[in-house]
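$ ./design --mode recover --in tokens.txt
reading tokens...
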């Protein structure tokens, strides 16, 4: 039999092309509801300077669009994730969250983080998404109350609304969200008290209500929240004592932040039982008495802030292997020396011991590690000697404050590198000239020393230079010829 090879070849070629075309068309398809929901969301965005949504084009495969994830088997959209970056000022979005997002019926995660300018109220269209488990609408510009019917979203695992402008009280219906592992409402403008119903959220590992205007006493209901690893209640208006039931969190709690409130009384002895504690912030309250000797058991503590209270001597010797940041400033301590467990720390970023009654010669202080210091504040003590060796050995130093001491050294000997932004050595016996390198600082205070000569051209006010022996030039009086 004679076979026309040319016809056969053409047939195979066209069949292959057709199949490839059908394959491409099939790949390009997006579920109509998902496409409508996502393009509706895009239509609510009024500004996208970095082109975050430029891949969102009708008729293409929405599973390949930026920030979209789909189920592998049926190609339905399961998560929408868009995030801005603080180091890229144009990586944000302006606009509102369109109600068409309710068309994404398979959505289980919504992540709109650090976009800065997403505004409007809490998107009630989310109540129509039965599979939604994760809501992260963080660091945007949403405002108004959190809806009372939030309790209807009973499948929620995480509710994070940190860094918006939400107002009003925390809805009592939040007690119905019993599957929650994380409740993060920090850095808003919420008022009222902590609702008692939060004690029903027994699966919580993370509770953050910091940075609001909440008041009253901290409820004594933590015995039912024993899975908590992070508790953040700082920067509110809470008063009274630390509730006893917080002691039940000892086995797992790693972060306890109660700073910047109006809490009072003694620091409870039971805090020494928190063997897993990494961070403890009790700063800027009204705590009195001594720091419990039980704190010697906090062997894992890396960040300890007890500053701005009314605490008195003696301060216990801690048994830490290393401390990353320590702030004991502005209490009624008379430490006399910088504690040995601080000096021997193999890594420390921040040391703040202002007004702690320290009487040492700074040249004699030989910390085990200075390379990684970011911040050192030794203001208001009776420290003598020179700061040159300490400051010049620190590779990453951002701020050095030592005002109101008895330091004596040549200011020009101080290495002021590119990283250093804050320098305050006012009210000492510093001598020499003001070096030109101070121009790169953000804040400077060398007032009330023994400096002389012409001030280099800077942006700093006269208050940064007054009270010296013979400084001249702007912003002080002109130098004499």
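writing sequence...
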């Amino acid at each position: 039999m004679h076979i026309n090879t040319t016809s056969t070849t053409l047939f195979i070629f066209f069949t292959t092309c057709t199949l490839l075309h059908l394959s491409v068309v099939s790949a390009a398809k997006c579920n109509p509801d998902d496409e409508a929901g996502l393009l509706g969301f895009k239509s609510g965005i009024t500004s996208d300077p970095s082109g975050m949504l430029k891949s969102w084009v009708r008729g293409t495969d929405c599973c390949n669009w930026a920030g979209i994830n789909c189920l592998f088997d049926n190609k339905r959209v399961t998560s929408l994730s868009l995030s801005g970056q603080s180091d890229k000022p144009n990586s944000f979005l302006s606009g509102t969250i369109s109600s068409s997002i309710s068309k994404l019926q398979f959505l289980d995660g919504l992540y709109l983080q650090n976009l800065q300018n997403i505004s409007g109220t809490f998107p009630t269209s989310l109540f129509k998404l039965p599979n939604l488990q994760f809501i992260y609408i963080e660091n945007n510009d949403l405002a108004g109350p959190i809806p009372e019917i939030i309790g209807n979203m009973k499948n929620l695992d995480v509710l994070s609304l940190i860094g918006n402008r939400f107002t009003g009280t925390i809805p009592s219906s939040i007690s119905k969200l019993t599957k929650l592992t994380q409740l993060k409402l920090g850095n808003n403008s919420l008022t009222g008290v902590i609702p008692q119903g939060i004690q029903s959220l027994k699966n919580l590992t993370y509770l953050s209500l910091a940075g609001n205007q909440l008041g009253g006493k901290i409820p004594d209901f933590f015995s039912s929240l024993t899975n908590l690893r992070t508790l953040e209640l700082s920067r509110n208006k809470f008063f009274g004592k630390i509730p006893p039931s917080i002691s039940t969190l000892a086995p797992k709690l790693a972060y306890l932040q109660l700073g910047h409130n109006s809490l009072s009384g003694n620091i409870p002895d039971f805090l020494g039982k928190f063997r897993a504690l990494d961070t403890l912030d009790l700063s800027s309250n009204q705590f009195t008495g001594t720091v419990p000797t039980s704190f010697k058991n906090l062997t894992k503590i890396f960040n300890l802030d007890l500053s701005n209270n009314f605490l008195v001597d003696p301060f216990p010797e801690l048994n830490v292997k290393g401390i990353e940041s320590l702030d004991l400033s502005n209490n009624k301590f008379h430490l006399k020396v910088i504690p040995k467990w601080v000096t021997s720390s193999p890594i420390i970023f921040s040391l703040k011991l202002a007004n702690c009654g320290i009487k040492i010669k700074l040249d004699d202080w030989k910390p085990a590690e200075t390379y990684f210091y970011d911040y050192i504040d030794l203001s208001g003590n009776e420290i003598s000697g020179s700061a040159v060796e300490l400051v010049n050995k620190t590779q990453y130093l951002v701020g050095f404050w030592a005002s109101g001491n008895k330091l004596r050294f040549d200011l020009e000997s101080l290495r002021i590198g590119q990283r250093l932004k804050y320098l305050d050595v006012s009210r000492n016996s510093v001598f020499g000239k003001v070096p030109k390198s101070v121009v790169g600082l953000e804040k400077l205070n060398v007032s009330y020393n023994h400096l002389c000569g012409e001030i280099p051209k800077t942006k700093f006010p006269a208050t940064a230079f007054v009270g010296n022996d013979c400084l001249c030039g702007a912003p002080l009086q002109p130098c004499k010829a």
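exit 0
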